[in-house]
Amino acid sequence: MGVAIAILVMLGFYHSESMQEFRANSNHNPVYKFVRGVPCDSGLKQSGFSVVPTGRLYLKQVNRDGTVGDICRPQD
Predict the structure, then answer these.
(1) Does residue 63 contact residue 29 with C-beta atoms inside 8 Å?
(2) What global pTM score does this model have?
(3) What distance in Å separates the CA atoms of residue 60 and residue 29, rounded to the nearest whole number?
(4) CA 34 to mean position of chain CA atoms
(5) Higher pLDDT, 54 or 24
(6) What are the start-end ranges of the E strands in 1-76?
(7) pLDDT score for 12
(8) CA 63 to CA 32: how far, in whole Å?
(9) What is the pLDDT of residues 41-66, one digit of tens each?
C-alpha cells in the first residue's frame, strides 16, 4: 500500500507544472552532481531552471561539456 502511494506521489510530481517547466528549460543531460544544500526558490534562473520543493538545492544538472555552472544564480 505504501509503495502504491509513493508511486502516485512521484507521478503527480512528474506531471506538475514545475517539472514541465524544468523539462522545457533543461539541457536534457541525465547527469547530476550533488551540491551543498543551497537555499533557493523554484523557477527560472540565469543558471537554469530550479525545482526546489524543500527550499534547498541538493542536485545540479551537469552541463554538456561536463562542467557544473553557478548554483541558483538569479536573473539579472
Answers:
(1) yes
(2) 0.59
(3) 11
(4) 12
(5) 54
(6) 32-39, 43-45, 48-50, 56-61
(7) 60
(8) 9
(9) 888 888 778 888 888 988 888 888 88
Cell numbers for 44, please give them.
527560472
SS3 category, 10 = helix
Per the CB < 8 A criterion, the answer to whether 33 and 68 are in contact is yes
User: Which residue, chain included where needed, has cell 509503495?
Assistant: 3
Q: Are 57 and 35 in contact (CB under 8 A)?
A: yes
Q: Which residue's C-alpha cell is 512521484?
A: 10
Enter the C-alpha cell of residue 13: 510530481
Q: Which three cell numbers stand for residue 67?
A: 562542467
Do 70 and 51 form a contact (C-beta atoms < 8 A)? no
Rounded CA separation 62/32 (Å)? 5
Return d(Cα 13, Cα 34) in angstroms, integer: 21
C-alpha cell at 74: 538569479
